Amino acid sequence: MNEGSIQLKDVSFALTSNNEKDENFILHKVNLLFQPGKVYAVVGMNGSGKSTLLDIISGLKKPTAGNIYSNEQDIHQNKKPLLHYIGTMGYCVQTPDTAFFHKTVEEELNYSIKDDKKIEKTVKQFNLQKMLSLSPFQLSGGQKKVLQFALTIGQSPSLILLDEVTAGLDKNGQQLIHSELERNKKERITVMVTHNLEEALLSSDYLIILNEQKVVYFDQTEQLVQRPDLLTHWGFSIPQSLKICQELMNEGIFSHQQLYVDNKKIVRAILQEQNERAFKNDS
Questions:
Q1: Is there a single domain that holds both residue 194 and residue 283?
Q2: Which residue of 26, 123, 157, 255 has the fewest C-beta atoms within 10 A of its own C-beta?
Q3: pTM of the full predicted structure?
Q4: Could you tell me the residue range of the domain that residue 271 belongs to?
């Protein structure tokens, strides 16, 4: 296991610790390895255990069975390694209101980040200038999510957990968050839960699929993109953009490295192909 890695070994979580029947488990015998510099996306149907998995990875919820290792040390061995582990982790929960404790956005920044230069950088990066004097609870739902993300990133965690962090955000908000995740991903492990399969395929290095409280897929995202039949097997609809990319690859317009890209790149590639064909016809 590489330095900075996190491993879940035979981790289970049940509603009651003394009941060993599988149907009572929220998660059952999960084995995962997270490496620094990678983005991991967790997808699955409602009730598959996605948020519970994040709670367990965070160390805030102790598994019923199994172990969590950080740098090969069991984080639940005693209080000292657990507190150290939690201190290196940033967690954006689904409901940002629970993450705010101060009267104004400025006070939240001062408390969480503390360093004046980092605060100034964060304010500019996430366009928080007009919010500084406002209460966090006065912000819109999307603004609260961006603020929570900014507070988390500003603390420079080595592990960042994101639970539906882009849900409800407009395109600009989503782009803001994904740009930051990509820009500094080498510095940390990123684990994100999302209901948006297209987002998961586009933004992750590894994909984790939960089904019936178990991990049924854990591999590089590009491997799954090449087998979209597996997505339908586990109840997902294949994103339209993935279907288009496959058609473009079959036509020779896209290479294997472009097997799955966002809509802007799809449009750009089609326009470029049309221009090249028009130039050939003219000459």
A1: no
A2: 255
A3: 0.87
A4: 239-283
